[in-house]
Structures are given as structure tokens and as C-alpha cells.
Write a structure and sequence with these properties.
heterodimer, A: 386 residues, alpha+beta, Uridine Diphospho-n-acetylenolpyruvylglucosamine Reductase, domain 3, Vanillyl-alcohol Oxidase, Chain A, domain 3, 8-stranded antiparallel beta sheet, 5-stranded antiparallel beta sheet, 12 helices, 18 strands, 30% helix, 24% strand, B: 502 residues, Uridine Diphospho-n-acetylenolpyruvylglucosamine Reductase, domain 2, Alpha-Beta Plaits, 4 domains, 16 helices, 20% strand, globular, disordered C terminus
């Protein structure tokens, strides 16, 4: 259940957004923020009657090529920004799946920041929290405030960019973000090894993760009765290093150690496994050592899995018509130290969020109360009932 | 030395705690940590009157050295009950006065808490207490792994202080800062309660309070346990120093290297005066009279490093360096670094006094801002030497002066401030790694509007509504937390049982 908005608002500037939010805040009118609309379900049922679309805030304010930074308004589609960066041989090293259920790559930078979604490049470059260097937000009393800056090193003031990353629009409107860019690698190559033994895959992943390979990506995957490891390298010696990794995977007991030089499709496929058009997707935050258990659970649940092997993050797409509640209980039972959250299909369960440490939750409640005193930003939709 | 003796400054908006109440608090502190770990005598407190920024001094009412997280919590609870502000201190090596005591407050020194609690190589995590030194984290996981943030004080500085300041170091252009390596924290909040943020795993549910806490300069609570991510040690490290006639040419080389898609482990620049001073102290064989030295270090996979290193050499030559020295062995590499790291202390030999500034600019503005700094030096009649973390545009101008000369200290301070103006005008920041602390509070409005500052205050009030944690730091003017406007309303979805509070 994601609900239907009663009213839709589309401010064309930050000033307009501020005026609108001041009005909605004063009236106590609940709202939710909508970017490309690809992840609306992640916040669970829609409590709000008003949807604030960011499509009118779609300017690339700065692209400082020499400084490898950019400032983007929230509504800029990430795909469009990436095209522009690529023309300068650069990238924003955030590669979450950009399409929702309909396959259209509509995800906006604001939505990616608000959801803290990530893809395979996180292995090398970190996630949203690591790449956002500045943020401008609009609060429910109309306050427009910024934090951070547009340089890659800066410790002045509190890092509100991280506070808003992953807050799913429950603290305020993200109006724009400043991001750090990286060189777009000219050459890449990917080593792939397969196995139907979760233990063997996990052992190989552990070994690979401990080597000074400087891989771009290190992913694990599972589908049907077979799993695989994918390691991507970039740079002048990418293919050579991929050969080494493939050979090592063979030594570690994986089959089909192969090197793929034209590897874009491999990684597009891996990213798309993090979403489901029809079923539920569960995200597991665990440690590297839990990988075997996660792969085993994917096998048992008949799920398609993609994960960052060295980071302990995995996405399990359940088959259509699967028992989401049961699967959630199975995963939480199998991985007692991990956090398991429902993304796609969150509306199907009463507890899509794992529990929050009570001490931390008390602070989060006060954060919510201070930043959104009118309590209009998607109230009750976030972790811990925030 | 030019001193700001701020002994009169106490926390805002609070009636002074009288002597009797203070004595009662001290008695409680002694009961919590034991007699020997509470200091109240002036001669003992002098040890703690400053941190690494010696021009600020203040005496707390008491300094207390808890031995465990539980003791920290009990100490903070006692302070909270008494309404007495507290300041946390690690090794006291900070450079912005962040650990400067609040007069009449309690200084909580975590230096006794230095246990490495867990080394989990399989999951690439280490859990330490806040008093553990930065260098001992790498020592605990070497040789296969290392902990990348490496502030130059790494032998003495504590992880607790690194967390508070979001410390960087020479290698952060490639590897990132403390905030990119902290995966979990156990905190004592300013009311004395505990909270755990994150843990070994990434992406904990709820707001990223972890990200908000790292770099909050002791104003949101005290970290009592820190989970850190470690990474595999690079297969190889290759280092060179290239000399140029002018910083502009060296700056051009930096830009070209980065444009090529090379991400050096470190890329450090020194200007003529810094080279001279460093050479006088470290004797690394750096030639006199050159306009700039560029230290470039590549680390990573062997073959990749070797391939890219040739490109770096070529770029340096193309940008006008006629003297590129590649370190032939570890000993030579050590010498290069020794010279770079000697630049600060070496200034002490050339000039009776100096201020170390810490500003950031977009990298491409380097030549322009350097010229402005040069001009400012002329205007004030003072020598400014420059050392930079060039990759990320972090400048460390060293403003030299003689405190014995009437008015020079004030002039040097003013000049330091104007360098920050130039950084901000160029689109940069007033601090890249030293923090705001007490020293740069007054510069905050250069970067942030009143609305921005008020927004920061919202975060602070969420953690510390009573305003007791390091209250006189970061904000340009003291401010209090009002009540949260409007009562907390239970949402209809919660009422209906559709959403619950965990």
C-alpha cells in the first residue's frame, strides 16, 4: 500500500519550496517528498495527503570539473547528471539501481540521498554519506539552511548531510547537495567465479577482501541454485589484475573463473537485482563473516541475491507471492546480529524496520522534534515510528 | 606568546555554581572514580589548562580521569544533576582549543581508557576505547591491515579526539577521514545515559547519528567505545619529491595528476620558506632556493602503482620540474616524509612564534589564493610559509611573528583571519581538519548564515538540551535551547496501530 496523494505541489525554486513549507507547517498538513517516485514504497504506507515533487528543482548548479565537485538540485535525475559528468571523464561514484518497478531510470539525486541507496561502487568509494560534501535543506517552518560546503575536505559545523542521508524525507526537504566526483575509469575488467556452495563463496570472498587488490567492486550474487563472486578492477592494469583474481578464485574452489572485459552489462544486472517489480526486497546489514548465512538464506527462500561481499550489505529479492513476513522472520532469526529491513514491499509487513537502540531512538525522536517541529514530513513512516 | 587567557569564560545562561555545590560534586566524582583520579589543585590542573593550541588557557574546577564507560556515564550524570558543564579531553593534542576547559566546569579526561577491546580481522573491524592512540590501531592490525586516517600527531593523539574532530591527515585525499572509518559508537549522552550508534555493520536503521556525531567536537556527548573499519595494507608504496621554480607550476602538476584519473595516497606541497625550514631540521637533501616541493605518494596494487607512477613523473617534468627524486628505498621515503612533517616544528627555529592556519580552497584556486596570501604577508610585513595537503586543497599557512615585538601577535592573528577570508571567498572552508573549537568560533559567520547556525543548534539541542557538553565551543555566540515548539503528537497511524514505535 503506497497510497495516493490528494494534492501535488511542485515548487520551481528553493524560495517557493520554503514559502510552501512554511504554509504547510503552520497548517500542520502532513506531506511527503517525491523525487523520481521509484522508491516510494520504502517508507511504508502514505500517511500524507500532500506530495511535494522535486521535479521543479532540477538544475545542475555547478560542475567544477577541475575540482571534481558538483552542486545539484534535488530533482536532477541521477542518470542525467552522470551523463554530464561522463562527458568530462568523471563520475559521481553512486550507482544504485535508478529504475523503479517500471524499468525507467527516473531516480533523482535527492531521492538517492534521502534513501541512502547504493550500488556496487560502494565497495571502493563509500556510500551517499561519504560522497555528499554539502547540503541545503528546507524545514517545516520555512527555514532554508545549509551545512558542509563544496570542497572535499571541511570540518566546519555539524555534518547535516549525513543526518539527512537516508532520512527518507522525514526531517525536511533536501533542496540541493554538493557532491565529490571521481575520475571515470577508462579501462575496467571483471573476474567472475561461481559455486553452488555458499560456504565456498563466502570463504573466497573473505580471502579476496583481505588482499590489497584495490578492486572497484566486490560483489556476491545468488540465483536459483547457484551463486557467484564478481570482482571489478579499473585502471591501466585492470585486465591483468582481473586475471589474477580469476585464477585465485579457481584456487579457492570456485568454478568458471573467467575475466570479462566488456563488463557493463554484468554490473547493470547485478544492480537490478536490488529491486523487484513484483515481489519484496529485503536488505541485510551484517558483517562480512555473515555472507555464508545470507547466501544460504537466499537459497532457502528462493530469493535472488546481490550484495557487497566485503561490506556485509545484501539485497534479497523474494519470489512474487512469497510470504514476506515469514521470510523476514527467517532472515532475522538466521542473522541475530544483523539489521534486516524491507524495501520494496514494505507495505506488506507491520515491521519493515528493524529495532533501533533505545538510547539512540530517544535522540532521534528529539532530532525529529527539533528539525520538523510541525511534524509534517511523512510522520510515522520512518524507523522507530519517527 | 600571544595569549587569550579565557579563565573568566563560563558556560552561557547559567548561574554560577557556588563553592559548596562544587565541593559536593567533587565528592561525588571521587566516589565514582576514586580519590586519586580527581584533581582540584591548581598546580595539578595546570597540566590541562590548554590543548595543542597553547594561546588559550583556562582552569576547570576539577579534572577527572574515569577508567571505564560506566564511570564516564556516572561522572556525566553527576555533572548533569549539578548543572555543571563538562569538557571531554583525549590526548590534548587538538589545534583549535576544542578541549579547552570551561572555567568552573569539569574536565573529563579519557586517557586512562586505552584498551583495544576487539580485533576482528575477518570482518575488518577494531573496537577500541577512546583513549587508544591513533597509531596503536594500525599497530594492532599490522601488517596485513592498516587504519588510514593519520593526523601528524598520530603517535599521541587519541581515537576519541579523532572522532570528536573528524581528523584527517596526509592520506585522506585517497582514503578519507575519520568519519569514513567509524562504523559504530557507544556514547554517553550529555544527560549521562548511554546510546549505541551503528556497530560493526553498516547502515543501521534510523537517522545517521553516527555521521552527525563524528566531528561534533565534543558538543554532543562522549564516545566510550569506537568501532573502526580497517583496510588491507597496500601491496606497494612509491614516493617521489619534485622541485619546481614556483608554487604555480607545482599546483598545475597537482591538477594534471588528478585530471589523469590518478588518486595519489598523498600529495603534499611546500613553498620555498617551508622547504628551507624543513631542510634545516630534517636534512633530507632538499635543495635551497626552489619555489616549491611536491611530495607525491602512490600506493596500492603493485603493477598499477608502477604504471601510474611513470605518469606522475612525466606530469611533473612537463609542468616544469627539472628535479624529480624517486625514493629508492624505505629509508629515503622516510627521509622525504620526515622533511614534510618537520615543516611545522622547523618554523619554530626560524621564527620565535608562529600560528598554524588551517583553511580549505577548491584545488583549482590554489595559485590565486597563494598569491593573495603572499600579498597579505607583504601588507602586514610578516613572513608566511605554506604547507598544503594539495590533493584536497587543505592549506596550512604558517604565519610567523615575534611576540616580543609590540603589536606583532595581534597583526599575525589578523593576518591569519584574513587568510580564512580568502579561503571562504574562493569557495572553501575555515577549517579542513583542525576544527572550530574555541579558536574559529568567530569565523563561523563567514561560512554560515544565521539560519545555518540555528539549524546546527537544533542538532545540538537534540543531543544536549541542557547545554552542558563543551558549551563554549563551535558556535560564534552562546545560545540556549528553547523548549521544542509544540507538544509531541502521536500520529494517527500509530494510534491505529499501522505504525509502531519500537
Amino acid at each position: 500500500m503506497s497510497g495516493t496523494a490528494v494534492r501535488s505541489e511542485r515548487p520551481a525554486s528553493v524560495g517557493e519550496a520554503a514559502a510552501l513549507l512554511r504554509e504547510l507547517g503552520a497548517a500542520g498538513s502532513a506531506l511527503r517528498v517525491r523525487g523520481g517516485g521509484t522508491k516510494l514504497e520504502w517508507a511504508g504506507p502514505l500517511a500524507a495527503g500532500i506530495e511535494l515533487e522535486t521535479g521543479g528543482l532540477d538544475r545542475v548548479i555547478e560542475h567544477n570539473e577541475g575540482d571534481f565537485t558538483a552542486v545539484l538540485e534535488a530533482g536532477v535525475p541521477l542518470a542525467r547528471a552522470q551523463e554530464r559528468f561522463a562527458a568530462a571523464g568523471q563520475m559521481l561514484a553512486l550507482d544504485p539501481p535508478l529504475a523503479g518497478g517500471d524499468g525507467e531510470p527516473r531516480a533523482t539525486i535527492g531521492g538517492v540521498v534521502a534513501s541512502a541507496d547504493s550500488g556496487p561502487l560502494r565497495h571502493r568509494y563509500g556510500g551517499v554519506r561519504d560522497l555528499v560534501v554539502g547540503i541545503t535543506v528546507v524545514l517545516s517552518d520555512g527555514t532554508v539552511a545549509k551545512a558542509g560546503g563544496r570542497v572535499i575536505k571541511n570540518v566546519a559545523g555539524y555534518d547535516l548531510g549525513k543526518l539527512f542521508a537516508g532520512s527518507l524525507g522525514t526531517l525536511g526537504l533536501i533542496a540541493s547537495v554538493a557532491v565529490r566526483l571521481h575520475p571515470l575509469p577508462a579501462e575496467t575488467a571483471t573476474a567472475r567465479g561461481a559455486s553452488d556452495d555458499p560456504g565456498a563463496l563466502a570463504r573466497a570472498a573473505g580471502r579476496l577482501a583481505a588482499l590489497p587488490f584495490e578492486a572497484e567492486c566486490l560483489d556476491a550474487g545468488w540465483a536459483g541454485e547457484c551463486g557467484e563472486l564478481l570482482v571489478r578492477f579499473a585502471g591501466a592494469t585492470a585486465a591483468e589484475r582481473a586475471e589474477r583474481a580469476a585464477a585465485l578464485m579457481g584456487e579457492l574452489g570456485l568454478e568458471r573463473g573467467e575475466v570479462i572485459e566488456d563488463d557493463l552489462m554484468v554490473w547493470a544486472g547485478q544492480r537490478s537485482r536490488q529491486r523487484s517489480g513484483s515481489g519484496a526486497v529485503l536488505k541485510v546489514s551484517a558483517v562480512m563473516g555473515d555472507l555464508a548465512a545470507v547466501l544460504e538464506a537466499a537459497r532457502r527462500l528462493g530469493a535472488v541475491m546481490a550484495g557487497r561481499a566485503a561490506l556485509g550489505l545484501s539485497w534479497l529479492a523474494l519470489p512474487e507471492a512469497a510470504d514476506v513476513k515469514g521470510a523476514l522472520a527467517t532472515l532475522r532469526g538466521a542473522l541475530p546480529g544483523a539489521w534486516v529491513r524491507v524495501l520494496d514491499g514494505a507495505g506488506a509487513v507491520s515491521d519493515p524496520w528493524p529495532g533501533v537502540d533505545p538510547g539512540a531512538l530517544a535522540v532521534m525522536e528529539r532530532v525529529k522534534a527539533r528539525f520538523d517541529p510541525a511534524r509534517v514530513f511523512a510522520p510515522g513512516s520512518f524507523a522507530g515510528g519517527l | 606568546m600571544h595569549m587569550h587567557v579565557v579563565e573568566s569564560e563560563s558556560a552561557p545562561g547559567r548561574a554560577a555554581v557556588d563553592g559548596r555545590e562544587l565541593r559536593a560534586l567533587v565528592a561525588q566524582l571521587r566516589a565514582i572514580v576514586g580519590e586519586r583520579w580527581v584533581f582540584v589543585d591548581e598546580h595539578e590542573l595546570r597540566t590541562y589548562e590548554s590543548d595543542g593550541l597553547l594561546q588559550y588557557r583556562a582552569l576547570p574546577a576539577a579534572a577527572v580521569l574515569p577508567g571505564s564507560a560506566e564511570e564516564v556515564a556516572a561522572v556525566v550524570r553527576a555533572c548533569a544533576r549539578a548543572g555543571v558543564p563538562f569538557v571531554a579531553r583525549g590526548a590534548g593534542s587538538g589545534l583549535s582549543g576544542g578541549a579547552l576547559p570551561v572555567a568552573d566546569g569539569v574536565l573529563i579526561v579519557v586517557s586512562r581508557m586505552k584498551r583495544v577491546l576487539e580485533v576482528d580481522l575477518e570482518n575488518q573491524r577494531v573496537c577500541v576505547e577512546p583513549g587508544v592512540t591513533n597509531a596503536s590501531v594500525t599497530a594492532a592490525v599490522a601488517p596485513a591491515f592498516f587504519y588510514p586516517p593519520d593526523p601528524s600527531s598520530q603517535i599521541v593523539c587519541s581515537i576519541g579526539g579523532n572522532v570528536a574532530e573528524n581528523s584527517g591527515g596526509a592520506h585522506c585525499f585517497k582514503y578519507g577521514f575519520t568519519t569514513n572509518y567509524v562504523t559504530g559508537l557507544e556514547l554517553v549522552l550529555p544527560d549521562g545515559s548511554f546510546a549505541q550508534l551503528g556497530g560493526k555493520a553498516l547502515d543501521a536503521p534510523g537517522y545517521d547519528l553516527l555521521g552527525a556525531f563524528v566531528g561534533s567536537e565534543g558538543t554532543l556527548g562522549i564516545a566510550t567505545k569506537v568501532w573502526l573499519r580497517i583496510v588491507p595494507a597496500p601491496e606497494t608504496t612509491k614516493t617521489l619529491v619534485a622541485f619546481f621554480d614556483h608554487t604555480r607550476a607545482a599546483g598545475e602538476a597537482v591538477s594534471r595528476i588528478v585530471q589523469c584519473g590518478i588518486v595519489p595516497g598523498a600529495i603534499e606541497m611546500m613553498d620555498e620558506r617551508a622547504i628551507e625550514a624543513a631542510e634545516a631540521m630534517a636534512q633530507a637533501g632538499f635543495p635551497p632556493g626552489r619555489g616549491a616541493a611536491l611530495l607525491v605518494e602512490l600506493d596500492g596494487a603493485q603493477r598499477e602503482c608502477e604504471a601510474r607512477f611513470q605518469e606522475v613523473v612525466r606530469v611533473c617534468e612537463e609542468c616544469g620540474s627539472d628535479d624529480v627524486r624517486v625514493a629508492r628505498d624505505d629509508a629515503e621515503r622516510e627521509r622525504f616524509w620526515k622533511a614534510r612533517k618537520a615543516a611545522f616544528p622547523a618554523m619554530g627555529r626560524l621564527s620565535p612564534n608562529y600560528f598554524v592556519q588551517d583553511g580549505v580552497i577548491p584545488r583549482t584556486k590554489l595559485p590565486d589564493v597563494l598569491e593573495q596570501i603572499e600579498e597579505l604577508g607583504r601588507e602586514y610585513g610578516l613572513l608566511v610559509a605554506n604547507v598544503f595537503h594539495a590533493g584536497d586543497g587543505n592549506l596550512h599557512p604558517l604565519v610567523c611573528f615575534d611576540a616580543a615585538v609590540e603589536g606583532q601577535a595581534q597583526a599575525a592573528e589578523e593576518l591569519s583571519g584574513r587568510i580564512l577570508d580568502a579561503c571562504v571567498e574562493a569557495g572553501g572552508s575555515i577549517t579542513g581538519e583542525h576544527g572550530v573549537g574555541v579558536d574559529k568560533r568567530k569565523h563561523m559567520p563567514k561560512m554560515f548564515s544565521e539560519a545555518d547556525l540555528e539549524c546546527f543548534q537544533r542538532l545540538r539541542c537534540a543531543f544536549d538540551p541542557a547545554g552542558l557538553a563543551n558549551p563554549t565551543k563551535v558556535m560564534p555566540t552562546p545560545r540556549l535551547c528553547g523548549e521544542v515548539p509544540g507538544p509531541y503528537r502521536r500520529h494517527p497511524l500509530e494510534e491505529a496501530g499501522l505504525a509502531e514505535r519500537f
